[in-house]
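Hey, I was hoping to borrow your eyes for a little while. No rush at all, and the record is pasted right below.
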Amino acid sequence: MNTSSGKTALITGASSGIGYELTRCFAQDGHNVVMVANHEDKLQQAAQQIRTEFPLVTIQTVSVDLSRDGAADRLYSEVQDKGFQVDFLVNNAGFGEKGPFLENELDKELALIHLNVITLVTLTKRYLREMVSRGSGKILQVSSVAAFLPHPLLAVYAATKSFVLSFSESLQNEIKDTPVTITVLCPPPTETNFFEVANMENSKIANSSQVQAADEVAKAGYEGLLKGDARVLPTFVAKMYAAQGITLPDSVNAAIVHKQLEDVKK
């Protein structure tokens, strides 16, 4: 299908990786999309690619650094001013920072917490209220398989993703008597720019067969969102991580993950 449905998806972190592939999923089904990302040039390039592929849908862009104070509310106001009703909210934007907690820069970790947690909570609050009030809408929260395991060398990132999972599944219960649904996508290591931003290009896990294709992860998340699934573990690798978190002691999981996050020896 390639005709506009009149429904609109707001997707953060939409210029690359899972966010970009989710944008393609929505556009392919005729939904209009507000693509949100930090870097204007990359965002416009990605938006033009979507417009070329799906010329009958409306693609809007908002360039904003959602790791900054007040940025989520500014985004919300700008989308309101444009007159869009957001039928689908996709909280995808996020980043990580690899390294020992004692050595990592605090400012970067606080920005990470702001983007991965505070922005997600703010946008969820604003749009969930609207959706419940009108009796329609769906939210996709992008967590991670890191939510299920302790992650030495990615301690702050993994903690934020555990928050996303717990927060979202708590809200699922709170709104269970409404038509609105919240779906949590828990991707495994995926082919995105995450490894580069997190300084993980040389890690064992980034160079392993566990890394999955972004389009496959996005498609599973999109289909789960439409069905109203509570949780999406999009690949066998993702299911393996979740099972590992349940079956092995945290101390053992921490040791395993620490090894995976170490750099490949040259």
Notes: The beta strands are 8-12, 32-37, 59-63, 88-91, 138-142, 181-185, 231-232. The domain at 8-261 is CATH 3.40.50.720 (Rossmann fold). The chain has one domain: 8-261. The CA atoms of residues 86 and 266 lie 49 Å apart.
